[in-house]
Amino acid sequence: MSETELLTGQLLFEFRTIKAMVNIYCKAHHPMKPSHDVCEQCREFLSYANTRLDRCPYGQEKPTCNKCPVHCYKPHMKQKAREIMLFAGPRMLLPHPIMAIKHLLAERKPAPGLPPEGASNRHERKRQMS
Questions:
Q1: DSSP letter string over the chain?
Q2: Which of 1, 20, 42, 123 is most buried, taking the most CB atoms under 10 A from its CB?
C-alpha cells in the first residue's frame, strides 16, 4: 500500500515532511543510490515511519515526535530519525520552505495529554470499512 492510501490530512503532511528530510539526508550520505530515489536503508526507514504514523495513537491530532509523550519508534529507529532530522532539518528551508515553517510551527504546540482511545488512523480506516 502506498502512503497516499494509508495516510490522510495531517498525518500525510507529516509523512511528506519526513520523506523530504530523508531525501536530503540520503542524497548527502548515500551517494551510490539512483539519482531520483533513496537507498534501500532509507526506503526501509520511510516504510517504518509510514507504519508508525498510521498507528499513532493520537491520529490526526498527532504532535511532532519530539514533543510526543508516547515513544512508538524502536530505539535504533528513533536514533536514525533523530540523525536524519538533525542533518536535514536546517537544510529544509531552501528546497521546502513551507514544509519547514509548518513543521517549526507545529513544534511550538504544547505536548498533549493521553491520547483518546481508538483515534489512530488505522482505527479510522477500520471503522470506515465496516
A1: --HHHH--HHHHHHHHHHHHHHHHHHHHH-TTS-TTS--HHHHHHHHHHHHHHHT-TTGGGPPPGGG-SS--S-HHHHHHHHHHHHHHTTTSTTT-HHHHHHHHHHHTSPPP-SPPTT-SHHHHHHHHH-
A2: 42
